[in-house]
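name: query_chain
kind: protein
chains: 1
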Amino acid sequence: MKKSIAIILAVFTVISLLASCAKSGGRSGSKEKTDTDDEYTTYVKELARDVNFDGMTFTLIGRSGGNFPIKDEETGDIGSDAVYHRQRDLEDIFGISWEPVITEIGPDTADQVINEVMAGGDSYDLSNGSTQTVGQPLLNAGVIMNVSNLEHVDMSREWWIEAMQTDYAIKGQTFFLTGPIVVNNYCDTTCMLFNKTVTELYGIDDAELYQTVRDGDWTLDKMFEVASAVPENPSGNGVWRYDEPPGFDFIFTSGYRITKFNDEGEPYVEDKLPVEFSNLADKLCPVFSDDGQTIHTKYKKNETPENKYGVEDLRTLFIDNRALFRFGTTEGALEMRKEDVVFGILPYPKRDSTQKEYCSYARMGQDSAVYVPRTVKSLELTDVITEAMGALSQKYIKEAYYEKLLKGQSIFDAESSEMLDLIFSTKVYDLIALYSGADFNQWGEFLDTLNDSIRFDNSNLASGYAGSARLTNIYAQQLVKAVDKIDS
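structure:
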């Protein structure tokens, strides 16, 4: 009898343990808060308390690299391990299975999602990729939903970039979500580098450069003044002041926007050339088109970097200490750190002293987001897991890519770390990439006109702008019609 009672008690004990595990959700029962939980893990566990996703599969589709770990285990690679840890925590806390669908290029991602949704399928819970090559086709096809209506995604939280609700909104609707949830968030942002060997050679004080930024006095005129310490180089045997300046980047970093919105929130561009764009081109074009001051990629017929500059890759000139300033993105800074060159990091300059804040542009074609397909199998699953991914990305992805890789491995001085904080705190977006041309994988004539007029020749800027603005606005209206179909 005693033996029977003991067996019964043992069975009840096992049943109680199993019930406890089932109630806590996840493989390790990690819905329950522990003393070692950080604020982001605690937040995610709170999200998990009111849902039951045990045994469900969450499928993320996107291009290879970036938002997917190299392997489904720790490898010692900082970036890969960060994504793996985020994925592991989501599985443990919510009891889900994580299923990645990895494509080779962005258009492949868009095609697969479009085909799936159009066929009524619900295979994908979330999509990831470039706003230009993935986001725009998905939006134009009407296969993604307005994420403003998601109950749990709180776009006021620090892991979401709120500009998606303003700069990327259409008729008050938001279709893109970005922040540390997307690795490219730390790679797409404009910054400029200065060569420390060149500043030392020509008596330019690095500390004064940084202080000028702190004081809010880093302007285009100040940049010209600093660069004038380097003699002009018409022979091509010496040092250039500027290396490969972009064009329309300076429109955004000067505090302007190409995209405007009417009272209904519909995007458009001005029919006539805005005077501020013309003034900017008048200021920059004479400098950036001057072969004695600037290295650039606009070559004459049959001319190449090799026969013009003696190098196959123009980056070589900055690496070889033959250029003072180089313009690019934070990803470029990370890549340049692998080379044998010592540099500092600065934000792009203000247009003049009247510009209140620095602006760092999320460069089109490089910025990415996540998108919610219209036919997800469970809206609650996608809603909650997306918010949880955002929070855990603040913990893992920001730490890995921003603190360890970008700030830890791409800089030579503490001041550059300070500059990166300023750069990312002043990030701006513009919707123009989504309606700039008939082929949305290219800039289109409209942006080419602006780009080239600021760098090379602004003599026909007004006519070139007006000639392509009309067509650009037709494309903008096509985008609006796509949104209207989604809304209906």
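note: The two ends are 70 Å apart (CA to CA).
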